[in-house]
Design brief:
Length: about 270
């Protein structure tokens, strides 16, 4: 546990910053200087972070401090969520009074994730995996996840490069979202799928961490999709079904992964 003390301290700081940012963002919506797509995103993002990600971070922190390997991996997943999430605020939001909060949350969560991964006893996790873990179905779902996002962003980038056609989201929004998805989601999910397929312990670790982030963020996007568009037309942007698939797929995968880790706490 001594090796993980730095991880726990950084994760506690990151979770506290997440709580402060999301709560004040909900209470003082006028602090945001964005409009349109970005403002709608913050209005959904803040409550999901406050009521889903923050409690999950603190609960997993307490259990991980008590020695739970499963909780430790879930905690690292919440840190990956925070790193990804606050990259959007830090690099995508118009300058506002929360700027230093964005920097602090981004740095603290990133350092907590790195420190936790470095301190993990990955060999012990590999030995604790059940031989009944269905690695290939889980890997196939991860390949599907990486392919859907990867093809969508790469196709739009190539269309712009070849024809000059600007992505529907707009150039700046596309640049930010595609860059973060391709680097922080598509690439690690694809690597994790390949390693999980051959039962490498690091593949298991990456899968758990990314599925925690996947559940929370897909839920966030699903809510945003449901609320998009005029209420008179039923709302929705036509992608709610896809985000629902990702919520359910990552949640089921996460439950299966954690259930097949044989740990001292059961």
């Amino acid at each position: 546990m001594g090796r993980l003390r730095v991880t726990f301290v950084l994760a506690a700081v990151a979770a506290a910053l997440m709580a402060a940012q999301s709560a004040t963002g909900m209470l003082f919506i006028d602090l945001y200087r964005d409009d349109g797509f970005a403002l709608d995103a913050w209005r959904v993002n803040d409550p999901v972070t406050l009521f889903v990600a923050v409690p999950l971070a603190f609960a997993s922190l307490v259990l991980a401090w008590g020695g739970s390997r499963r909780a430790l991996l879930v905690l690292l997943g919440t840190m990956q969520y925070a790193l990804y999430n606050y990259a959007f605020y830090l690099f995508g939001a118009e300058l506002n009074v929360h700027f230093l909060l964005y920097v602090a949350a981004f740095v603290a969560s990133g350092l907590a994730l790195i420190a936790g991964l470095v301190a993990l006893d990955v060999l012990a996790i590999g030995r604790a995996l059940s031989p009944r873990l269905p690695v290939r179905p889980l890997a196939v779902y991860m390949i599907f996840w990486a392919a859907v996002l990867g093809v969508a962003w790469v196709a739009q980038a190539l269309a712009f490069a070849i024809t000059g056609q600007e992505p529907e989201l707009g150039a700046e929004a596309f640049r930010l979202i595609a860059a973060l998805d391709l680097s922080l989601v598509v690439t690690p999910v694809a690597i994790g799928a390949a390693w999980l397929w051959v039962r490498r312990a690091w593949g298991y670790v990456i899968a758990v961490v990314l599925h925690v982030k996947g559940v929370v963020y897909a839920l966030l996007i699903a809510i945003g999709s449901l609320l998009a568009g005029p209420v008179a037309q039923g709302g929705g942007d036509g992608l709610l079904g896809l985000w629902a698939v990702f919520v359910v797929g990552s949640l089921v995968s996460l439950v299966v992964l954690l259930a097949n880790l044989r740990t001292a706490e059961g």
